[in-house]
Amino acid sequence: MSGSARAVLVTGSTSGIGLEIARAFGAAGWRIGINSDEPPGAVETILNEVAESGAPEIRYFQADLAVPGEGEAVVGEAIAQFGALDALINNAGIHTQAPVEDFPTAEWDRIRTIGLDNAFSAIRAAVPDMKARGWGRIINIASVYGTRGAAGKSALVATKHALIGLTRSVALELAETGITVNAVSPGY
Fold first, then answer.
1. Which of 186, 93, 79 is nearest to 128 (CA)?
2. Cut 0.90: pTM above it
3. Contacts of 91 (CB under 8 A, 6+ apart)
4. Cα 117 from Cα 120, distance rounded (Å)
5. Cα(111)–Cα(168) distance, rounded to whole angstroms?
6. DSSP letter at 108?
7. Hey, which of 36, 125, 176, 178 has its CA 20 to 30 A from 98?
């Protein structure tokens, strides 16, 4: 396993866009940190698939990003295990569809905690290490709903709008540090 290859942590990366991002980084020779809230045994096949992409090292970081502060914890664990974190991809997110008058408050909080609060928490934890080395990449996976509304998706839309705003603010703060901060807004 290569200790000199760059390391990336991709949150929410056992399926969908997150898994494809992890595979792409693996194919480029990066050490990969996979994250989800699933038990380690449930993701063994996924870890093997990402390893087959060419990644010199794969590590699994189990964390429930619906719990406040877990973003910071998972980044701290990744830095401790990899020795440094070169890139952070905040991909984790969920959504529920319901009219605003029927939208459960607990679900609103869960969507926001996973998609925004823990993205902030992870960024805050990653920045000092990246600043110390004068280089880093932070990519937040937003959505087309980060720039427009959608009926029945108030929590997702609000969270993705806020994530884009967070991205813009942090990018300005870090503009002269060697760390880039970007958002990607996939659609269907």
1. 79
2. yes
3. 10, 11, 12, 13, 17, 18, 21, 141
4. 5
5. 21
6. H
7. 36
Nearest to 162 by CA among 93, 89, 72: 93
Q: What does each of the 188 residues of the chain score in pLDDT, given as a tens digit?
A: 345 799 999 999 999 999 999 999 999 999 999 999 999 999 999 999 999 999 999 999 999 999 999 999 999 999 999 999 999 999 999 999 999 999 999 999 999 999 999 999 999 999 999 999 999 999 999 999 999 999 999 999 999 999 999 999 999 999 999 999 999 999 87
| DSSP, res 14 | S
CA dist list (Å): 136 to 40, 84, 117: 28, 10, 21
**Exposed, middle or buried by CB within 10 Å (0-12, 13-18, 19+), for 180?**
middle
